[in-house]
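Troubleshooting: if your tokenizer reports a length mismatch, compare your output against this known-good record of 119 residues.
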Amino acid sequence: MARKDELGRWGETVAGEYLMANGYEVLDHGWRCRQGEIDLVARSAGTVAFVEVKTRRTLRFGHPLEAITPAKFTRLRVLAGEWCRIHRVHAGAIRIDAIGIIGDGQVVGNLEHRVGVIE
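Known-good structure output:
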């Protein structure tokens, strides 16, 4: 389990670096509350994006983004509202993004960013 957790943390770091390199400001990373966890919260052009990051070493068990279920998106919407309430953020717009990464924990083989998976 520790190896999987390390890969997940690496993927979140890679995703944060990717977002910053593409003009986003990362507001939060690994935010937790009773209802769950948000991997990344980032802002760009007045929109706050709540980003779910999934990382896998290979496609053997499918693309990483296939692991994000409708139930997970529903939970992310609740978490996004809670994050905004607690941080007193009144964004012009919010959205849920997803980033799927295939890599070995050191080298990124592929990174896919799906913007506004649900809004």
